[in-house]
Protein: 4505_t:CDS:1
Amino acid sequence: DLFKRMKETDDHFSERFYSPVSPSSSSGLEQRHVWRFSVRPRGGKNSKEHVSAFLWSYQSDYEREKGLSSRKIRYSVDVYRSAPSDSPGSTPNLVKLKTKRGVETNTFNFFTHESAWGSSEFCALSEIFPNNERNQKIDLVININFFESAQPTVINDGLSNNGSVIFRRYSPSLDKYFDNEAYSDVEFSFDCGSKLKASRVVLASRSSYFESMFEGSWKESKLFTIPIEGVKYECFKLLIRFIYTGRLADGLDFDILMNLYVEAEIRNLGELRDLVSSQIVCHHQITSENWEQYLILGWKTNNRVLKEMGLKYACDNWDAVKDTVGMQRVLSCGVTKWVEELMLARFFGYKSN
Structure:
């Protein structure tokens, strides 16, 4: 069904699952790793005779609190095809398929394109469909094994590790003081009429942007109510809450994330920007209706992951995007080198740097 009904570029994601599945103690429950698995039934642009498969890592609450921005794991992914049994009414046999991956060890970095590992040529369609009978109904069983020899690592070298920086700079969490009038000496006002209260000390101690704002040279340093223009209240509230807690809620709307990424970039909140980028990449599907947003934002903010996603999607789906409003936006952006990069990728093939 997946092979027949899904488009060439569609990924099918599993629900979140955990390792270990059954921890030996209640404390182990907190330390479980969070994962999702994705398959693309028709592979990539140059691997349409294969199924692509990737294992995706997600930072758990425990890893976030402990300052872990990476996870080193030894694992294997096995695929089985369900074959009819010789005896009527008995359980079908499982036939293990040949794949391009065996037991391997990888470091999953939550805030980069290395948050997922896998292969665009994971398993050949000829393995899945015997005798090339692709109208045949096939059930696949995917078994992921995690081995205990590789443990998650904490990198304590300071600024080279996003997770450690987030943990130190935004620890402890001050969530109970967030938007609390009793602990506030400044408020932000918005076009919608909403107001958000905060503490100058908290903001300045955890953000160089707000430290500059309140030190005296900016006009805002003299104001109790600071107007925030051109930014939605919901977006700015997420930004301030991050400064207080070092956390970002899951499941945020795509447009909110895009706006929040820009605000984090403007206000020099690199850690928030990386978290937002991770959510965009891991939780939202790039489509013909939003591909140019990935590309333009990647160009504007020098985000290689977002830029490459946009370029790859455009090249793989040129007929679907060439006459869209998104393409008009890209071609009329006014930056010649961006348009040249897209055209070069189109005519000579896209290659990741």
